[in-house]
Design a protein that fits this description.
Length: about 260
């Protein structure tokens, strides 16, 4: 794998202080989300009834596809709209996606907290709401709502980790991860490699990529982009604008060649 050097960043003391606070926030959110998911599993085991098996399996399967759809929607929106300067979302969500096109290998150099922390921050309040409004085993007739929402949050919190694993050299992933990727239970490397070709406008789903062929066959991204551009009266800012001219030329050469997997 071609390991490019990650550019050092010059940080002021106040930047470093802000990053440290954010990291503590990320760690707290990851711990809280892990705790809430564990409570869901324990309560499910405690209150399990045979009649729940169907709803549980259906909710789990539905969440698997729903998470892929949500991951695609978020990725598409961050790639195609706004800029790294957009308030709040710009720095924490849009900038990482744009940087990822310029330096796709950089994600493999990041630690667990940096890769998954922001998603945990976004989803922990939803998990708390699920426990408050859809508690398991307290007279509710079906666990469907709780299992669906908890599974959806679980898949989504793990999504960026699956994304990172799809960029790692295959021989650095464990046999279990390689098997999960081969079966497309998590995002496969070759599948995701198709997103990393100019103009970065397909295969946005990064949980498992199952929905990509369907969404593209139906032209969902094209129709959504046209509708949003019309409604907001603003031009979208494609990811292409945020790449250096040298990388743009390099990608344009690749775009002219047949589909190829990630350069791993
Ligand atoms: Zn992208
Ligand atoms: Zn990627």
């Amino acid at each position: 794998m071609n390991q490019r050097e990650i550019r050092p960043t010059l940080l002021t003391a106040s930047d470093r202080g802000g990053r440290n606070h954010h990291r503590i926030f990320e760690m707290a959110a990851l711990l809280c989300a892990g705790f809430l998911l564990a409570v869901s599993a324990l309560r499910l085991a405690d209150h399990f009834e045979a009649a729940w098996l169907g709803p549980i399996l259906f909710a789990g399967a539905l969440a698997y596809f729903a998470a892929d759809l949500v991951s695609g929607l978020v990725h598409w929106a961050c790639d195609r709209f706004g800029s790294p300067n957009t308030p709040f979302l710009g720095e924490n969500f849009i900038a990482p996606f744009r940087e990822h096109h310029r330096e796709p290998e950089a994600i493999t150099q990041k630690g667990f907290v940096e890769v998954n922390g922001n998603t945990a921050i976004a989803l922990t309040p939803i998990l708390i709401l699920v426990h408050v409004s859809l508690p398991l085993g307290t007279g509710h007739s079906s666990p469907f709502g709780h299992i669906f929402m908890a599974s959806l949050c679980g898949w989504l919190i793990a999504t960026n980790q699956f994304h990172k694993l799809a960029h790692q050299p295959p021989n650095t992933n464990s046999p279990l991860i390689r098997w999960l990727q081969r079966k497309q239970l998590i995002l496969p490397q070759i599948h995701h490699g198709r997103h990393h070709r100019a103009p970065f406008d397909r295969h946005y789903c990064i949980t498992n990529g199952r929905l990509d062929p369907w969404l593209e066959k139906l032209g969902v991204w094209i129709h959504l982009e046209a509708a949003l551009t019309r409604l907001s009266h603003t031009r979208n800012e494609p990811a292409e604008n945020f790449r250096s001219p040298a990388r743009r030329l390099e990608s344009d050469r690749h775009a002219a060649s047949p589909a190829r997997p990630l350069d791993l």
